[in-house]
Design a protein that fits this description.
Distance between the termini: 193 Å
Largest sheet: none
Structural class: mainly alpha
Length: 137
């Protein structure tokens, strides 16, 4: 009986246990390969995530720099427009001030001429009255 048991075990080993052990080994190898692939994928994912974050950070920094440059450019243009407007206003004021001075001078001369004319008229009228008043007695 013992011999038949040994023969039975040898047959089982060669027919069943051998293929089962081989399947078990293949399964262990597949699991180990899966773990290794998972670790590699996790490392790649972490690397890609880091590159993504670095690129986003660089893009944000560049965008902020562009916004700052545009603000400075707009500020410079605004200052140029303000300066141009100031110069235009100063020129306008200077021109109109000169025109106003000329108008004032013309009015002053006109009034001066009118005053002289009025003074002559008054003197003539007074002289004419005095002549009539002096000739009447």
């Amino acid at each position: 009986m013992f011999i038949s048991f040994l023969i039975f075990m040898m047959l089982m080993k060669s027919m069943f246990f051998g293929p089962i052990a081989q399947v078990k080994q293949e399964r262990a190898t597949a699991v180990a390969d899966g773990k290794k692939a998972h670790e590699e994928a996790a490392m790649k994912t972490a690397d890609l995530e880091k590159r993504y974050q670095d690129e986003i950070s660089a893009a944000r920094k560049k965008a902020q720099q562009l916004v700052q440059e545009q603000r400075e450019s707009a500020k410079t243009k605004a200052n140029q427009h303000v300066q141009s407007a100031r110069e235009e206003v100063v020129g306008f004021m200077s021109n109109h001030s000169a025109q106003l001075q000329q108008s004032r001078q013309a009015v002053y001369e006109s009034l001066s001429n009118q005053r002289e004319s009025l003074a002559r008229t008054i003197v003539e009228k007074l002289s004419g009255r005095q002549t009539t008043a002096a000739g009447a007695p």
